[in-house]
Each structure stands twice: as C-alpha cells, then as structure tokens.
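SAMPLE LOG
Freezer: B-3
Tube label: C17
Construct: single chain, 331 aa
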Amino acid sequence: MKIFIVGGAGYIGSTLVPQLLKYGHEVIVLDNFMYHQTSLLNCCYDEKLIIINGDSRNKALVAEHVKTVDAILPLACLTGAPLCSKDPSGAKSTNFDAITMLLELRNKNQWIIFPTTNSGYGVGEKDIHCTEETPLRPVSLYGKLKVEVEKILLSSENTITLRFATVFGISPRMRLDLLVNDFTYRALNDRYLVLFEASFKRNYLHIRDATSAFIFCLFGNSEAVHHAIFVSAPHGSLDDLDAADDGYGYECFGGFGTNNISDLLGGYAPGTIVSEFPTGLAQHIPANSDLVVQIHYAPLSTDQIDLSSINVFFLFILGSKYLIFFIIKII
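STRUCTURE (predicted):
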C-alpha cells in the first residue's frame, strides 16, 4: 500500500512512518519542518520513503502526490488551544481548510484516516464519562475546528476519524508540552511537581497505541480474514492454477488444488501473538521453492474488502545454507 502522510515528521508521524516502512509499505511524507526537527533521520535511507519539505496548504503540491496513493493521513496541525489562540488564521487554514482541500482532491476510493481530539467534548461534568455518543461541545478554537472538520469528513465516503485521548510517550519528534511527558520530565529534572486542579480527571493514550490504531484502520480486517496458512511447493508447480483464475491468486476449497506441497510451515490468525521456532529447531524448504499463502475467510453476510498485508520475515545465520525460521504476521 502507498500512504500519504501530511505532517509525517511530527510527534505521531515520526513514530508511525518507521512502522509502515518496516511492514513494507510505501510512504510519502509532506511536512514543513516548522520545528527544524530531524525526526525521520532513522528511516530516511529507506527507498520506500519520499520526504517533501512543503506546506499542507499548498494545493498544487498536495494534488501532485494525492493522486498516486491508496490512503491519506492528515496529521499536520497546529495542536492545542494556546497555539491556535495565538494564530487563529493559521489554525483555520491548517486544521480546517487543508483537510477539506484533501477531501476535495482525493478520489472516493482513497481512504482518509484523521486524528481528532477529545477537546471536542468541551468542559466535562462531574461523574459523567464521555463516550462516542456524548454530545460535542467544544470551547476552544482548536476543539471547534476539529469538530467541524470531523463532521465534514464523516459525511463523506471512506473516512475514519480517531478521537484520541491525550497522547504521551517517547517520539523522535518529542513533545514536552503533553501532560504525562511534562510531569515525567519535571519529576526527573526538578524533583517535584506542582499540581493544578489535582482532583481533575483526564484520559491518556500511549503514542504506540495511537500508531497501532492507524495501522489497524489501514490494514486490520480480522472480521473478514479468519486465518492464513503457509506451505511451499516446487517452483512453478501452481502456475497453471494461478493462470486459470482471473483474480489475484486462485480460489480453492478444502485444500490447495494439488498434492504437490510441503507440510504446514506455519500460520497466523489476526489478534494472535507471533511465534518463533526455538533456537536450533527448523523446517527445511528446498531451494527455489514457491511460498504459498492460503487465506481463509470468515462466513459473513456482507461483502468485505481484504486489506491484509502479509509479511514473511526470514532469519539467516551467516554461513548456513538452511533457512533457520521465519515469522509470519498479518496486519
């Protein structure tokens, strides 16, 4: 999959981009690097990554790259009430106008996954916890812009919005203005904390969980994919079956359509933990074999699109001619 991340060098983007690259996806990052950050240095060598220094409000620049991708993640934002109050014009053009422009430029088959904020709920009430059904009553300009653009997005096809709690955790583009990060920094350096409204309650979300939410929205469809199994076959032995089916791969029921396959090499079901062969234990795959993946779909009453990305990771020991083990994961 090819993904366009606007604001991809920011707090969330610089954590998400390396994960997407690791899973084999192509990523285009557009960022104005307003903080002069070097947050993508750890992955800028990757040939699957394109980095563009530019403004999310530049329509010609955005249009040039939107047309080439499968999904769009608008992360560019003037984040937080204080920053938006300081520059209301910039807040509207970045947090609202640039998002609606993306909606205008993309085609309806391209997904937009947009992070919004729990600031949209406004001032909380004692002993009442917000849910997705709680009315949105934003107070700040930041919250109002997020809520308005969320309404527009959700009225369009193929859009998802994520109402994140206050994010915290380590990122290559570190932010110390976020409460948990700030408390941790001050506790370590100042050795004390000053608490305002000590009885106030707020929800929090680790940045790794935030990036996992994006990955799940992009690829996770465990409702459709029940499980996958892996075998090997002599090179080219399944080409006739593949060629006879107009779709990608070929359909078969109750087997692989041939007996000329190996024993089961491994398998994976969404939501299970990836396992590895113990050290010293392996299965031999003959040279030049084809790896065959069979995906089993759950019986559903509605049509589903399979967005799974299957990654097979190999580990070789230097000097050995055998495959030691491989890890299978379906995102």
